[in-house]
Amino acid sequence: MNLALKIIDSLESSDNKTLKFEDKTYTFEDIATNIKRAVSLLKSVEVGYQDRVALQLPKCMEFIYFHFANLLNGAVTLPLNPDYSINEVGYFLSDSESRLFITTSENAERLKSVTDKLKIDVLTIEGIDLSSYKASETCLETKDDDVAIIAYTSGTTGRSKGAMITHSNLINNMEALRKLWRLSENDKILHTLPIFHVHGLVVALQGAFNAKMNIVMHTKFDAGRVWETIESQKISLFMGVPTLYQRLVDAWERLERKPDISSMRLFISGSAPLPEILFEKFREMTGHTILERYGMSEAGMIASNPYKESGRIKKSVGYALEGCTLKIVKNNKDASAFDVGEVYIKGNNVFKGYWRMPDKTKESFQDGWFKTGDLGYVDEAGRLFLVGRAKELIITGGLNVYPKEVEYVLDRHKSVKESAVFGVKDSDLGERVEAVVVLNDESRANPEEIIEFCRENLAHYKCPKSVHIVDAIPKNVMGKILKHLLSERYAKNE
Fold it and tell me: What is the rounded end-to-end Cα distance, in angstroms, of the chain?
């Protein structure tokens, strides 16, 4: 089935449901009509079956219209971060051989040299009047394994790879989450995530449309405004990343009058590991236990903590989703419970492969299992715990150090607000363990004191040789810490 057709069916069968985007309100019926009008526009410029259409737009309704219209028309969406540089966009457009580039007039001018060189048609949203197009009532027939989205990976260890996500991947994952998280038309979601990312587009927006729930959408995240909106709009569902939850905690502490959040049913966190101290602090302050889940571009959502609040525990991302199976592999053998190894997955959520990279695709699979590159272990009940990325494993003096284990200790120090542990090349040890920390306001802790705290709680070889106190830790737009930048930065300081 075509994902967009399923979404259109949900939009058109939803009674009195709306999407409130800043100061404008759109009915689901109006959204469905504009998607169909956008289909007519795409047909008029001859976008067809499995053509790639790149969207580099700010968070706006046009992104929604053209994304779903594109899928309805049997084409493939290439969602691009508005902050990408000219060189990055040039690579994505060239590698994907995009047929059409939809963006703003200002961005089109910025990238004119690239699009002219690649001879890509450009459509700017400022000049579009969808009301002048007739709503198309035809949907191009697509197969379940046809590609719907190409999501480029971050490319921190090489050139970015385009993960080919199919209609079937998206639909199966969406339905599994709807059942597990009990998403329904009784919900009202507050959407503050970027819309070009899998988290904001696939999990939050498509999930909300599919469940026929009312949506309140902000252009960008503002912690104080989130608390205010939850109270005033009686929000029941919020999805965020750890960085956003830290800001929510900071804002809550500053509020003289705490908001009434009795309407809230579920706070969900993903895209990066949730620190143990933040998990505990949020629950202590708000009375809500954050539901942490685990996913990636190549597989959507892989695992989630249970819906039942008592079943959500810190440090764990829960159990494999319906339709997905996971196992831990150590030294090319299935690992026993509590043994750390690489997380392997298989299921109807796993992507089709990397765009025009058959060798990379082959390397990423073993006997039908996708090798995630994440390190973790499962307990005797099959609950998954992550300890870091395989490429972030630190081998110091021949001994393995998992950054997450050290970060758990650092985050428990009374003066530490946030931490990141990484490896730096060392002529004696091969690699040495180092860390950066952001201190709590007013804290006067020094690096030696923090290292000593680690020595009291960890084996000596796991303790950071250096702790660097910083104002902020480098992250990508979804809150993932860019550890390769830290390794490069502090290697240069030696």
Answer: 56
| β-pair type (291-296, 300-304) | antiparallel
What integer pLDDT is reported at residue 388 of this predicted model?
A: 83
The answer, yes or no, to whether residue 273 has pLDDT greater than 60, is yes
The domains found in the chain, sorted by start residue, are 3-142 (3.40.50.980), 176-390 (3.40.50.12780), 393-492 (3.30.300.30)
| DSSP-based three-state secondary structure for 155 | coil
Specify the DSSP class assigned to residue 154: -
CB 381 within 8 A of CB 305: no
Q: Distance between CA 274 and CA 271 in Å, rounded? A: 9
CA distance 393 to 483: 11
Instruction: Say which residues have a Cβ less than 8 Å from residue 168's Cβ, sequence separation at least 6.
Output: 144, 145, 348
pLDDT of residue 458: 86
Contact indicator for 280, 292 with CB cutoff of 8 Å:
no
Mutual angle of helices 61-72 and 28-44, in 10-degree steps:
60
Cβ(65)–Cβ(134) under 8 Å? Answer: no
pTM above 0.70, yes or no: yes
Phi/psi of residue 66, nearest 5 degrees:
-75, -30
pLDDT tens for 368-389 read: 999 999 999 999 999 999 988 8
Distances (CA, A) of 187 to 4, 215, 225, 483: 21, 9, 19, 37
